[in-house]
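Project standup — Tuesday

K.O.: blocked on the structure for the chain from last sprint. Re-posting the sequence here as requested.
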Amino acid sequence: MTDRPSGNVADVPPGGPLCLAGRIRIEAGGEQIDDTDDVALCRCGHSANKPYCDGTHNEVGFDDPGVIQGGRLVPGADEPAEDDPVVIVCATDGPLLVRGPLTVVAADGTTVSGTKGALCRCGISTTKPFCDGSHRDSGFSAR
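H.V.: unblocked you, prediction finished:
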């Protein structure tokens, strides 16, 4: 068994939301909407309370194995400290933009760490949990 990563962590369970723990700030429309240490964010694209999960993934049959299928997080120009908060920016009609230290942990234990990237929240990316731009042609709508 591997040790749990420290700092800000995003767990990717099969068929479920993105579960973040650590120091998390969420922004939408240019404003901070949350400052928390534990949150579940929608990955299926159908929540009525985006960016938060409301359980709709169970009703719509969101089927994702919770593994890293491509995409990545990259280091930023100025590396923040591991204990700095991660800011999740909800791009209008687009992905969750990562700004700050984050480790993504897939259901199979695979991890990806970095300080910049884009996480899918439309539910149709082929590189889940990362964004591949599929939201652009899908009609996905969210603040």
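K.O.: great, moving the ticket to review. The helical segments are 56-60, 135-138. The longest helix spans residues 56-60.
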